């Protein structure tokens, strides 16, 4: 371990950024367009909501399973690479002709491995950054750039050639992600012991940490209608696929700006302030989406706030996780964060959105999403610690 007087080794920015780029490039195809692909396979709204809930359901178990396996392994990086290779292999199942019911099994396998690898990689990135965790945004921003490149170009392709082509377009991205995993490694070994695990749960039981996880859960719950049905929602209001791609791109463009500027914010303000702001902005965004979906300027502004509801939220969450779970405990913290908030929150958000979709053609689902985000903001304001951090001059 590096001593306090030893200079921290250089951060391998290019290698870390390459993995984020390809991982989120694939997500840039999956998140906006996968529901359209499922629709092209003849699935209805209820079936799509169940299928998309599998994406979040696997997040409940995959992150903690993978980070635990990596933590006790003498070579934890192997688990990252195994997960990436299995992501490629399982996703290839979508290319095979098969009845609709078997798609559920393929979806479970693909989502499990795809969701398993990112929490481990976040831990890898933080081991390299060490005390410079405020630089996280400058590396993570490459994921947003990959997302933008794909969501823009794939929207154009799908509009002209149909959503059935989507799996063939996505498979090379997963292959490149797998290749990037072989270029990366931990900055140091991050094993675990029983004492560490006991210490981890002692931290989780602290009221401020519990409040953080509950707020994060509610934030992810609020995204259920967006991640599951936003593309279909825009389609039913007359938006073309290329315009839909623009809507997704606008949000991520502003997300890039946030990731570039976030390090300066964290030097002056505590991360918990940004957590509160991000969730409050998400509430306003979902209510605007529910009330004025046909108004393109309003929708563009609403999409622009993705830089707060997602990027700022995620960056502040990484800061708080680094604070709450230092060193060897961070991988476990990442696993719980992804499993509980993104996993359980995501699957319930997708299922609730599916049930509410019949009311007002989706408007009720987005109104409920806004209420969930507001509740998370209130909990964060009241219970998450260190929010009154003094501004540095």
TrEMBL record:
Protein name: MFS transporter
Regions that span the bilayer: 12-34, 79-95, 101-118, 139-158, 164-187, 208-226, 246-266, 273-292, 298-324, 336-357, 363-384
Compartments, as annotated in UniProt: Cell inner membrane
InterPro entries recorded: HcaT-like (IPR026032), MFS_assoc_dom (IPR024989), MFS_dom (IPR020846), MFS_trans_sf (IPR036259)
Residue span(s) of domain Major facilitator superfamily (MFS) profile: 208-393
Membrane topology: Multi-pass membrane protein
Top-level taxon of the source organism: Bacteria
Keyword tags: Cell inner membrane, Cell membrane, Membrane, Transmembrane, Transmembrane helix, Transport
Pfam family, one: MFS_1_like
